Amino acid sequence: MQNQWNPCRGFRGRLLTAILAALICSTTVRSEQPTGEPAARRPDRVKVAAVQITGYTKCFEPRAGYDPAAAIVEYTRKAAADGAQLVVFPEYHLGRIQVPSSVTESIARAAAECKVYVIVGCWELLDGDEFANAALLFGRDGRIVGKYYKTHAAVDRYEGETAYSRPPAGRDRQWLIENDPEWVMKRGDGFPVFDLDIGKVGIATCYDGYFPETFRILALNGAEIIVWINGRHGRIQDFVVRTAMFHNDVCMICTNQAYGAGTMIVQWPTSILAECPEAKEDYIAATLDLGRVRAAQDRSRNAQQRRPEIYGRLVEAK
Predict the structure, then answer these.
(1) Which of 33, 104, 114, 124 might form a disulfide with 134, Cβ 3.0–4.6 angstroms?
(2) What is the pLDDT of residues 20-38, one digit of tens each?
(3) What integer pLDDT is reported at residue 32 of this predicted model?
(4) How is the chain split into domains, by residue range?
(5) DSSP secondary-structure letter at 56?
(6) What number of other Cβ atoms are within 10 A of residue 220's Cβ?
């Protein structure tokens, strides 16, 4: 029988194999902003918590007689007592703040005291009159180890006007800020994944979840857990969450303000482990099996059979 050529035999074969491996690795998508506290060996099972609560609203309106940072401290301690390593709060919760500030410092102290990760939404005041819809990630030592700016503006209707998706004519910046600040907010320009000692965590904010590209890019960037914070009226749709998990081989933690509902902790492929079905303040905790997620990602046929060379229409302007 004639010997078949083996490209891995001999020095030339080994050199060719090394070159091919380097080329493959160079095309692998990585986290855009790798940050956090990575560990060589992450746990397969991680307990997490989610809080459905109302702090500030979209238009900067506070909840009367309420200190949103104090509530975060209280629930962070509760989550730590339950054995959770990550606790997640909703979009907008802290209102308009500087980062860092006395507000973030109180949360930082609680995160360090409890040695847990905390994710919470706010309007971050930037230079001049700029601001962003931000999600802050506090590390176990209290440092802000990650930050995400909402990328898709969920513009709305006010003052009895009909719905619109473009800025109404004749309105100045101040009117837009007062009626829907997302018209003029500074938008994010990427989908970072944060490399933590519990796993790789990506963040999406409310309307971002209505674009399937958001969850797909986070997964391509290495996310094992996608945290989806919301500040909507009405429930978070479980079919959106289940579809995102099934398509992307991830677990999800979803939060909403208490005037909405649907806060949930969800295990890949489609199992809701805990949820808040009613529009009221609530707290849930559950254990995610990230070992299953990592195994699924390693053998994912969907990931292996992607054909990005024919998906160009997805990123073309309409």
Answers:
(1) 124
(2) 333 333 333 333 344 455 5
(3) 36
(4) 44-152+187-298
(5) S
(6) 20
